[in-house]
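Field guide to reading this record: the first block holds the primary sequence, the second block holds the structure written as discrete tokens, and the final block holds curator observations. Each block starts with its own label. This record concerns Circularly permuted type 2 ATP-grasp protein, catalogued under organism Corallococcus llansteffanensis.

BLOCK 1 — SEQUENCE
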Amino acid sequence: MPRAPLSDAIAFYDDLLKGDVLRRTQELLQRTSEAKRITYGGRVLAHALRPHFVTPEAHAELRRAASAVGQALEEVAARAATDAAFRESLHPQGWEELLLPVDGGRPGLATIGRLDGFVGPDGVIRFIEYNPDPGGPINSHHLGEAFDVSPAMEAFAKRYDVVRPATAPHLIPSLTALNARAGRSGPPNLALFGPPGPDDSDEEAVYRDYLEANGCPLRIVTSEDDWTYANGVLRVGDFRVDVITFISSVGFGGLVVGCGPDHPVMRAITDGAANFMNGLFRSTMLRSKTLFAALSRMADEGAFGAERDALLKKHIPWTRVVREGMTPRDGARVDLVPYVAAHREHLVLKPAFDYGGRGVTLGWQTDADTWSATLKQALEETWVVQERIPLVKTAWPVLDGGQVRYEEWHSDLNPFLWNGGRPEGFLVRLSSSAMLNLAQGGSLTPLVVVDTGKS
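BLOCK 2 — STRUCTURE
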């Protein structure tokens, strides 16, 4: 039978939000958020009373796009490990050369990653960044579980077939697969390196609780001096360490800067006695926004073949490293810096190595003098310029004084990539601002696939 519009399903769900159903749904979401620490800096992240609904067809297209872009990013990162000239074209920070001999040539380290993107008015998702060590899978899982058993969703599911793509349940199998590639069975013994940053303590606690509850022993290590490596075994005290990771950039920086090549951690990783989750060299390369500039430029130049080039250009906005010179743009060649100076309404400037939205300058929200000053800074440092993605605000139900009120919010769609690039599950953020980072006030809601054919 023909499918009803998704808008009908949204209207039906929203109509359920009244009386006892509304009250009990809100109470459950609030109670779960507090009990499971679905928070950021102590701020509860669940505000919307509705999940983000997509059709099965849209879900399949999102996964196809994520797989294509993720595969291309992996190819670029792998090439960077073997091609010094290409690596230099990505404007590395300097750490990369130190980490290349540690694990740069080791395959199979990709455990979890996340592409961050937006669906435009044309229904096409465009990815703007990749996070090789992402937050969010466990919070998204806990919030999704709360929605699953909420009165509103239970009533909704009587009319529509619904599926919530899993996030956190893929974490332990992916870690176990990483451990198996090192010749060990079962989930690894995991060490979280470094203290959490001020914005990461909530997430660290969530990770710790989830991993330990699911059979993955771990230790949190805050000093470079706590490690020993002997007889092919890396230890913290008497705890054997199979896999090292971190929650915050503080931990990553401490590991990379504080642990030289003779440190027990670096020797163990180099010998293959332990692995860094997602790879030290790989993570350092993939966290740079210059990789999106490389993909965009290479697709414009026909590097991937006609079909893949078209797919990448569809799902990645035009992106370049900010440097003097000519570059392809919309079938022509433009002088990049004057072009960026003259087209701020359609462009974004971003520091290549920052995160959490810091330094991101939206041209359409910036005056000419500020744009000019930021462009000058971008030329002196390593920044990228990226085509503006048209964003859509939609109405989301929230509780206000016992009644439903609707807020006009932007949303993003950020698929997780597991165990070498398999797309499963999403982080969905909501915000009144075009900057949807949790650090800047964003909130969360789960993604749910709704088959409207049942109604």
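BLOCK 3 — OBSERVATIONS
Residues 318-387 form a domain with the Dna Ligase; domain 1 fold (CATH 3.30.1490).
The two ends are 10 Å apart (CA to CA).
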